[in-house]
Amino acid sequence: MNKTTDKIKHKQLRARKVRAVLVKNTERPRLSVFISNKNITAQIIDDNTATTLAYATTIGQKNTGKTMSDKAAWVGEAIAKTAKTNKIIKVVFDRGPRLYHGRIKVLADKARESGLEF
């Protein structure tokens, strides 16, 4: 295999390891975070019914911030507000293949400040 396919394979393996631990907790929905080069997306997923309960993204939004950390903070607040309107307070944080550092940490901190518990 070449270097690119190895990177993709190991990234998928890290994400599966994180989710394997989270799926054991079935009473709480999962807060899944995806970060691309330009946008950030967060969604709260109920794994029992495989449905999305709340959703926040920077795609198509204006004035979310200039840096990616600003965008992550905005998404953290937005997902917490959406979760409150849907009466969701406790979630399990799914960081995917990324480390709990930088943008992921900023998003999680803002979501906690806005009322989500995880």
Keyword list:
3 helices, four-stranded mixed β-sheet, alpha+beta, 118 residues, globular, Nucleotidyltransferase, domain 5
C-alpha geometry? globular
Side by side, the strands of the main sheet go 3-2-1-4
Number of helices: 3
Low-confidence stretches: none
Class by SSE composition: alpha+beta
Q: Using the coordinates above, name the CATH class.
A: Alpha Beta
Radius of gyration from CA coordinates: 14 Å
Tally of distinct domains: 1
CATH topology: Nucleotidyltransferase, domain 5
Strand runs, count: 4
The H/E string reads HEEEHEH
In short:
By secondary structure, the chain is α+β, with helices and mostly antiparallel strands.
